[in-house]
Amino acid sequence: MKAAVRYSLAAVIAVAFCVGVAFLYRTVRQEAAQIVCGRLDVHFADSLRFVSEQDIRDYLDERYGAYIGERMDSVQLAHIEDIIESRSAVSRCEAWTTDDGVLHLDVTQRAPVLRFMRSEKDGFYVDDGGYIFPLHPTFTAPVPVVEGAIPVNVPADYKGEAQDERERAWIAGVLAMNRHIAANRSWQRRIEHVRVRPGGELLLSLTGRSEEFFVGQPQGIPDKLQRIDRYLGIIAPSKPQGYYHTVNVKYKQQIICRQKDT
Questions:
Q1: Among candidate residues 109, 140, 161, the one where a domain is terminated
Q2: Does 144 lie in the same domain as 200?
Q3: How many domains does the chain have?
């Protein structure tokens, strides 16, 4: 077969292939246009319970409107993702559709690492990046609690980072302390309560100890905990239990012990 004939035949086959693909694509598009959304499937990528499937459905109905019965190729997936991610307890949402008429949502909730409480009902959660989100009315996450004079001024329904730079720095310091404690099994067992004094200074209570340990601002925490360790290993054994009322390690290279007022 001559080269010219071969090239012509190849060209014809290529054109026929392109026409076939275009026809198939058009057919698929036409068939897809006839499929409507008949069901919503919500999947949670975690075991948290800040948001329920019904919450997602109600929120979507309120903010998006009717999607059941909408043509699948008209469902605004990016808009739906933005709506769900605007919920303070949701960090990520992925939306997609399938040919069986199902709208799928894969929801990842924001994972709290600390709960800050100014009073019994006034508080908020933060995730590991310092993102603030409100308490849930029916679910309490099993995370460490920091309570007292929290120096962060946010309303009850606030979500996002603290707006004041000093407040963000304070939260970052407490988070760094929490990470340090979480990485040390001994300190995990020891710390019973973390309280905040006016001005943002921290006060620790240890399991089985009557002393109060002042650590000051949440800065230089590893060094301060080392000095508490030194107190527990060297100073405390030389005195009877309860001899000292407070142990102050907020100042560099110092351990200041005070007896109860008499």
A1: 109
A2: yes
A3: 2
Edge-to-edge strands, sheet with 112-117: 132-134, 123-127, 112-117, 145-148, 191-196, 202-206, 212-216, 244-248, 256-259
C-alpha–C-alpha distance, residues 175 and 116, integer Å: 11
Which one, of 203, 183, 185, lies nearest residue 193 by Cα?
Answer: 203
Judge whether 211 and 253 are in contact, CB under 8 Å.
no
Q: What is the pLDDT of residues 106-123, one digit of tens each?
A: 999 999 999 999 998 899
Of 82, 109, 136, the domain-final residue: 109
The stretches of the chain forming alpha helices (DSSP H) are 3-34, 53-63, 77-85, 165-182, 185-190, 221-230
- Helix, strand, or coil here: 23? helix
Alpha-carbon dihedral angle through residues 116, 198, 220, 113, given to the nearest 10 degrees:
0
Same domain for 140 and 99, yes or no, is: no
Indicate whether 23 pLDDT > 60.
Answer: no
Classified as helix, coil or strand, 41 is strand
The predicted-structure confidence for 198-243, as pLDDT tens digits, reads as follows 999 999 999 999 999 999 999 999 999 999 999 999 999 999 988 9
pTM for the predicted model, two decimal places: 0.80
225: left (phi over 0), alpha (psi -120 to 50) or beta: alpha
Range of the domain at 212: 112-259
